[in-house]
């Protein structure tokens, strides 16, 4: 199933007339008017637009979000007053959607001939609430991938430089009985130490910026400690995978060639 939102975008100005219909309100509106229980507002009259419209309250709805989750629940009033109609919500089946939309358009234009017909799907409207977040998410993914790639290039270059600088040390260690695992550990531990230092510095900064960003949302998650631990573990794995080629190459090299005097 899909939902269709019809919106009036232009047309005549309707001046509200003075007649009575019925209001539905949400729990937030009940609280904002000072009522302790939903039952207390039933059959009470609410006036809007300078008493041009007065309607009794016939029901109270549970609070629901009708806007971006950046914002808290707001007082809501729903009425059947024809002078306030500007949108209609229609639930449609996805079969023969084109012909169904054309039928809706025909009925709408017959009912409101002075208004321009325009429709929007509800999922598209909800998606528009978070358009900025989606764009930022894509940018973060792209820049993160670039940063990881450049970091791997730097680590690979540094590992290659270390392998050349310590080639004789590796040869001596192998002659004295060091295994390939010992050589790999010799190369890897220095990078692990550097990554651990970077992790200790970056984690509190990242936590602070994320907390500031989440303050823009009324409904937000709590940043758990395991997210940072996972990030640190992934960083170490990527670093080890990057330097492992040079480390293993140095570990399996012939020590005779490593110790040969140029």
For the report, how would you describe the main beta sheet? Answer: 4 strands, mixed
Structural class: alpha+beta
Query: Percent range for helical residues?
Result: 40-55%
Task: Name the shape in a single word.
Answer: elongated
Uncertain segments of ≥5 residues (pLDDT<50)?
1-20
Q: Write down the domain tally.
A: 2
Helix/strand order: EEHEEEEHEHHHHHH
Total helical segments? 8
Radius of gyration: 33 Å
Give the mean pLDDT: 78
DSSP E strands, number: 7
Terminal residue distance: 77 Å
Q: What is the beta-strand fraction?
A: 5-15%
Strand order of the biggest β-sheet? 3-4-2-5
Quick recap:
By secondary structure, this protein is α+β, with helices and mostly antiparallel strands. The chain is 53% helix and 15% strand. It has eight helices and seven strands, in the order ββαββββαβαααααα.
Describe what this molecule looks like in 3D.
The protein is of the alpha+beta class. The chain has 2 domains: 2-129, no CATH class; 131-259, no CATH class. Helices cover 53% and strands 15% of the residues. Strands 3-4-2-5 form a 4-stranded mixed beta sheet. A 3-stranded antiparallel beta sheet has the order 6-1-7. Strand 3 (45-48) and strand 4 form a beta hairpin. Helix 4 packs parallel to helix 7. The N and C termini lie far apart (77 Å).
Q: What's the topology here?
A:
Layout: E1 2-8, E2 23-26, H1 27-32, E3 45-48, E4 53-61, E5 77-79, E6 87-92, H2 97-111, E7 117-121, H3 122-129, H4 131-165, H5 167-175, H6 180-214, H7 225-251, H8 255-259
Parallel strand pairs: 2-4
Antiparallel strand pairs: 1-6, 1-7, 2-5, 3-4
Helix pairs in contact: 4-7, 6-7
